[in-house]
Amino acid sequence: MIQPPLPRGLRRLVPTVSLALSSAVAWAAPPAAPNFSGGSTAPPPSPDGAAPASLGDVTPKGPAVPTGPGASPAPSPSDASAAAPTGEATATFPVWQVPTFSSDAIGALSNAIDLTLKMYGDTGLAVRNNDYQPWPTGTSNPNVYAPGVWNSFFAPRLDLFGAADVAKLTFLTEVMFEAENNEIGIDVERLQISYLFTNWLRVRAGRTHVAWGYYNDTYHHGNLFELTTSRPYSVNFEDSLGIILTHNVGVGIDGTFDVGSTGSIRYDAEVGNGRAADITAVDMQFAQKNQKDVNVRLRWIFSNGLIIGVNGLRDVVPALGGPPGVLTRPVTEELIGGGHIVYMENHAHVDIEAFAMRHNPTGAPSTNIFGGFAELGYAVGPLTPYVRAECMRFPASGDIIYQYAADSPQGILVGNASVYAGVRDFSDLRVGLKWLAMPQLALKLEGERLGRGTGGPVLATASQSQEIATAKAAFGFW
Amino acid sequence: MAAERFATAGDAFVVVVNRSNPVSSLTGTELRRAVLGGAKQWGNGAGVQLGIIPKDVPETRYLASLFGMSIPDLFARIQAQVFNGEMRRPVVLRSSAECVAFARASEGAVCIAEDRPPFPPEVKLVSIH
Which domains are seen in chain B, by residue range? Predict the structure, then answer.
């Protein structure tokens, strides 16, 4: 079996991984020789009726197998086309060659499991003006938040994306190697298995991105696909100051119904562990509560590409205690409603999302948070200039979950106050340019102003701010 | 027996599926939904499986043009949908002949081939309107 060349640095991987990569890189470097034999009979379908083909099918796997007595050696596809007969009686057509375990066990295994492995990452340079951003953080990287203008190259992420299909059963996973405080940590960000019953019913289970709005489960950890250099704050990850639950460990169903020429309706419904007591963590193995979060999303997908959707989510944030003398954060019900309008056709990029969140802490007054963002871009060839404005309004009395102080149980746990502590209005404005130089590489140049205000019109009264200029190369190989 | 034929006369390329696929014609929007993960299953119960030549070749240009996209845009969209778990990884093809062979063998196949008859009876050509 002739393997296509592997990317540099991957040749030493174990054979099993090498097999997966041989399929993965075939997108970029398909093998030279075809895998056809002459014949007039199609090979039998797989027993379950599923598509037997995969990337492995086009990999040469030894001599072609004649299909009948006296069959001639296999012609190449071009031969088959050129020699296409005009009469039905003598017609010969190329055959999709599926290897068998007797002839090619590795090739057959590759076909059977249809496994792929992709890699995503990003690197770049950021320049930060910290003169007006006195808020505390727990980072050990001093130039990120120390006063003055600081610059730093960065290469903080490697994302391994694996996926496999067997008939209607699909598996996918994302394993992230991610820098935090200049040290690499490993997270299984997605671990999802799903079974497709029909277009209107797919069941999935595992650790998934919550079906919230559009951004949260359209963009994952590979920055290549995002327009900007990073996610909106409201749908950022749990350990990155996110407000809305990003990951869900549980089960969900989704499906699509055709509604004629006007488009289709898509629904998602999920149940999972929800928020952990430590809001920067995800309960992956042992949930800290018996009550589960429930999330429902409903979308109308118009035939012209316009998407209009609404969400509803209920969760309960467990109580969190601290050292003696520190007031325990009470059990808090979290209710969120949201809506999104999206249009990604005809070179336009429009994603407008908004949410309203209510917290009902046991024994304390309820509070509300409102927020949203608008991300707009227009592609001119491979270039997409864009702008994204985001704002969130916190309650005047402070929010018990996300505006924790340094001496609160959550603040003590993570070592610092929330970036939202003491803030009435939080804003983030970005202007940038994405250049999709090739499907595997996006270059981004972005200016960002992050503001924290104490009241009044958003942006205008931001009394504390940070300006960031970022040049980033985001890439993905498959 | 020749392939059941529905393609619009005069097209340089045709959309090819397996004969067991009940689809005989699609609108551009329906084809887009099928190719880009919006619809995951054909009427015969087989999972939609796109076959594509991942290069700047006429077949792929034709497919991208049906959606009003450039080839890099199409590849980026496919990659994003696979990353999302919304569509299966496409099967890599290298020619129209491979497309025909793929469609013969796979009940869920959909791909683009040059309109060069005859086509085998195990495939069907779908008209796009």
Answer: 6-116+123-128 (3.40.190.10)
CA distance A258 to chain B (A): 9
* Chain A contact set for B47 (CB, 8 A): 50-51, 165, 167-168, 196
pLDDT of A334-369, one tens digit each? 999 999 999 998 899 999 999 999 999 999 999 999
**Any bridge partners for residue A432, and if so which?**
A386, A446
| Contact between A45 and B85 using a beta-carbon 8 Å cutoff | no
| Cα A68 from Cα A434, distance rounded (Å) | 55
Contacts of B79 in chain A (CB under 8 A): 224-225, 439, 476, 478
Q: What are phi and psi of B63, to 5 degrees?
A: -60, -45
Nearest to B104 among A58, A93, A217 (CB): A93
pTM score: 0.80
B119 C-beta neighbours (distance < 10 Å), count: 25
Give the model confidence (pLDDT) of A355-413 as tens digits: 999 999 999 999 999 999 999 999 998 999 999 999 999 999 999 999 999 899 999 99
Q: What pairs with residue A202 in β-bridges?
A: A196, A254
Q: Which residues on chain B are in Cβ contact (under 8 Å) with A43?
A: 105
**How would you class A269 by CB atoms within 10 Å of its CB: exposed for 0-12, middle for 13-18, buried for 19 or more?**
middle
Nearest to A40 by CA among B111, B94, B119, B20: B119
In three-state secondary structure terms, A409 is helix
* Residue B115: partners with Cβ closer than 8 Å, 6 or more residues away: B7, B11, B12, B13, B14, B125
Tokens read off for A130: 């910290």
